Amino acid sequence: AAAVSVTGLTKVYRGGKRALDGVSLDVPRGAFFGLLGPNGAGKSTLINILAGLVIKTAGTARIWDRDIDRTPRAAKAAIGVVPQELNLDPFFTPRELLDVQAGMYGVPRAERRTMEILDIVGLADKADSYARTLSGGMRRRLLVAKAMVHSPPVLVLDEPTAGVDLELRQHLWEAVRGMNAQGVTILLTTHYLEEAEQLCDRIAIINHGKLAALDTTAALLGRI
Ligand code: ADP
Ligand code: ADP
């Protein structure tokens, strides 16, 4: 089975904007999958439907074989979502933040992997520093760690490098690659072709709410 599977996914916002128009795609388990498309293509809408933040108009979506309508809690437990905004309480430390998150997801204390997760994202030495002392890049990596607290098999990132200094993106990619190397399926949106090319093994291109192409990165870029 696929990690994420959507069929005929359609979203018409109030006011009539058709942001997604019958998109069907499968994200294979273990993939590093890129959702590529220009601004306004519908990428965030698709991600937000999976995250439970936007209600779809039509179609189906399954995460790790759990239907988001029939078993929404189980579907939600199977993904971690890294939001675009860097909203973190400045007076919480990474350790505290991950503890609160683990509590919300009901992860028993004995099963919490706080330091292991902070280590993967390169923040082990910042475990007890206030978030206010962390750089923008470190905050985003902390949000990756936060999304992984309940050990979801799928990690979703919406434009993770928006606002991150070009030169400092590398740290973030190392963190996400580290998650993928641990077996986590990655689904990220981007409007940078080079970013998708460098990171992803499979790319879906969406434009005006429709799937324009879907293939391995090598096959897709060979064709362009
Ligand atoms: P992307 O992430 O690819 O930039 P979005 O999914 O954010 O695209 O947006 C797709 C289209 O839907 C755009 O035309 C956008 O303006 C519109 N849209 C997004 N959110 C809303 C909303 N809450 N209400 C109405 N239109 C929206
Ligand atoms: P990235 O955006 O890739 O995460 P950072 O901006 O976090 O990169 O910084 C790169 C390196 O500089 C970090 O690994 C860290 O060692 C150091 N650094 C940056 N900001 C701070 C800070 N506020 N406090 C301590 N060290 C920092």
UniProtKB/TrEMBL annotation:
Domain of life: Bacteria
Keywords tagged on the record: ATP-binding, Nodulation, Nucleotide-binding, Transport
Residues in ABC transporter domain copies: 4-224
GO molecular-function terms, A-Z: ATP binding
Coiled-coil positions: none
Similarity-based family: Belongs to the ABC transporter superfamily.
Name of the protein this chain belongs to: ABC transporter ATP-binding protein
Residues of the full protein shown: 15 to 238 of 321
